[in-house]
Structure formats: C-alpha cells, structure tokens
Design brief:
Mean pLDDT: 84
Largest sheet: 7 strands, mixed
Strand order of the largest sheet: 2-1-3-7-6-5-4
Strand content: 15-25%
Number of strands: 7
Order of helices and strands: EEHEHHEEEEHHHHHH
Structural class: alpha+beta
C-alpha cells in the first residue's frame, strides 16, 4: 500500500502527450502508472517534510544524497546523476518592481527535481507559479507525445530560463530610470543612489541563479547522453542559448550599474572639490579686509592715523583689493 504524504500536491498523468488524469492524490500515482503502461507522470510537492520525501523515496528509489539536497535550502543550481535517476536543482526568478514605493528585487523560487524513467517529481521549496509550468507543457502537445519525461524536464528548464531572462530584462529596464537620475547635473539624490545599490545587489543575486544554468542544460544535451533524443536536442540547445543570453544580459547590466555608481561617485567628488575651492576663495577674500583692519588697528602711527581721510583710505583699500581678488578668482573659475 502506497504511503500518504501531508504536503500540498499537484499531479498529472500523460499518455502519448495527452493529459488523462490530473490533480489526483500522491497515493493514486502508482496505480495510474500501472493501469497505463505507456504513461508518464508529474508530481509536484510544495515544501515537503522529511517524512513526505521518505515516502517518495520508498516508492521510487531516490538516492539519500538527492533527498538531502531537496530538503536543504539555497542549494546551488546543479545536475547530479544517480544510478536510477537524475537530481536537478534550479531557480525560477520573478522581478518585483514597485515604482511607487521604490522597492525592487529578484524573488527566487527554488525547485528541485527528480527525473526517473516514468515520473518527473518536482519539489517547490517555496511558493511558486506552477501554472506557468503547466501552460508550457500544454503549449506543445505534439512534442509531448514523443518526449515523455524528458519533454517534461525540457519544459521545466524552458520556464525557469525564460523567467531568469525576463527578470534580467526587467532589471535592465529599471536601470534606465536610475541612469537618468544619476547622470543629471549635481549627482544623484541619496534615494536614487540607494536604488542603484539595490539594483546591483539584485543583479548579483540573479547572477548566482543564472550562471550555472547553461552548464546544467548542456549536461542533459551532451552528445553521449541518453536523456535527450534527436527530436529534443534542438529544443535543449534553444534553452541553452537563452540561458547564455540571460547571463550576458546580467553581466552587461552589472558593468553598467557599476559604471553608473562610479560616475556618480566621481560627480560627488567634483562637487566636493568645487565647494572646497569656493570656500578657499571666499576665505582669501575675507582675509584681505581682516589683514588691513588688523594692520590699521595697531597702536602705531600710520598714514592718516587719527584723521578722517585715513578711514577713507583704509576702507577704499579694503573694497578695491577684495573686489580685485573676487574678479580674479571668478576669472579662474574658482567662484
């Protein structure tokens, strides 16, 4: 008797690419596979417990190390081969951008998958959009009829890589707003600068999810592999190409935002130098009357000492020398 599991389940049974059963319980899957010898199944588990995966292991002979990786959070994207199945760990990515509040970030959905001969078992370690995966499989019934479980794996890769590429494009578009503000005269406001740092952090997080994907897909599609037949190889190559384009877009965006932040830092330095230069210029202007009044304020006779024209002379010297120094500094661009 098949053991029961407690976590939420999505399920499908395919016969020649057509869905013949859907949304049935985990305990019914084994029976459906026996009743339809040519069928393949998909089982999705949302945040399963160790006991849930132990029940699946007993039924389908999954490797303990693969189970350990499926239970662990934040595993790196990878593909591991075991005697009776494959283990895959990938990240679907969704970009959150609220222009009103200014919040942004890449939300990653970690998905582990066990690829057996007749069943694709996916484990969502956090809430994700399963509907997009189902839509992708339903969009190509003809290929599903000849692809079996490998077609289901291809559909999973395609949805994941498309989500990563879409997130990379959205981050690049969000960067346009930041760029317009940062390149304005006087440097960017602090809020815009913080958005730039948030973008760079999101890009770095996204890169960790995307960078290994090309190798993961290539591992399935390599010439000596029996995972993808000649009908599926072009489709896997297309996913591999999309993974490469997503990584290139992220790398370009990282260089771009880094250059923008560096340019903004240089602009701030220029502004600080300009302010320092102006302060020094005004200090020089103020030093002239200070020096003159200090000189004429000595308790020593000087030309015009104690006479009205002496006051006029000292005032005239102050005004003439300070004004001359002002126009000189203005001509030099210090003011």
């Amino acid at each position: 008797m098949t053991a029961k599991i407690s976590c939420p389940v999505h399920s499908r049974l395919y016969v020649e690419g057509r869905v013949v059963e859907e949304d049935f319980g985990y305990d019914a899957l084994a029976g459906h596979l026996r009743d339809h010898p040519d069928s393949v199944g998909w089982l999705d588990l949302l945040e399963p417990s160790a006991e849930d995966l132990a029940a699946v292991t007993a039924e389908y002979g999954l490797h303990p190390l693969a189970i350990e990786d499926a239970l662990a959070a934040r595993e790196r994207p990878k593909l591991d081969r075991y005697p009776d199945h494959l283990f895959v760990n990938v990240y679907a990515v969704y970009f959150d951008h609220d222009g009103g509040s200014g919040s942004l970030g890449a939300h990653k959905v970690e998905i582990s998958a066990f690829v057996t001969e007749r069943v694709l078992i996916t484990v969502h370690k956090n809430e994700g959009d399963v509907g997009k995966l189902v839509e992708r499989w339903d969009a190509d019934a003809e290929l599903a009829a000849v692809g079996g479980v490998n077609f289901l794996l291809y559909g999973l890769f395609d949805v994941v890589v498309d989500s990563q590429y879409a997130a990379a494009r959205q981050l690049d578009e969000a960067m346009d707003e930041v760029e317009d503000s940062m390149l304005g005269e006087g440097g960017a406001p602090r809020t815009v600068r913080m958005r730039g740092f948030a973008l760079r952090r999101s890009l770095a997080q996204l890169r960790r999810a995307v960078a290994p994907m090309q190798d993961v897909v290539a591992e399935v599609n390599r010439p000596d592999s029996d995972l993808a037949d000649d009908r599926l190889r072009p489709y896997y190559r297309d996913v591999e190409d999309h993974a490469e384009r997503a990584l290139e877009s992220i790398e370009h965006s990282l260089v771009r935002i880094t250059e923008l932040l560096d340019a903004d830092l240089n602009e701030q330095s220029n502004i600080l130098n300009d302010i320092t230069r102006k302060l020094a210029a005004w200090a020089a202007i103020i030093a002239v009357p200070t020096a003159l009044t200090g000189y004429f304020g000595q308790n020593l006779p000087y030309p015009g000492f104690g006479k009205p024209w002496g006051f006029v002379l000292s005032t005239t010297l102050i005004v003439v020398m300070a004004t001359g120094l002002y126009f000189y500094l203005k001509k030099r661009g210090w003011l």
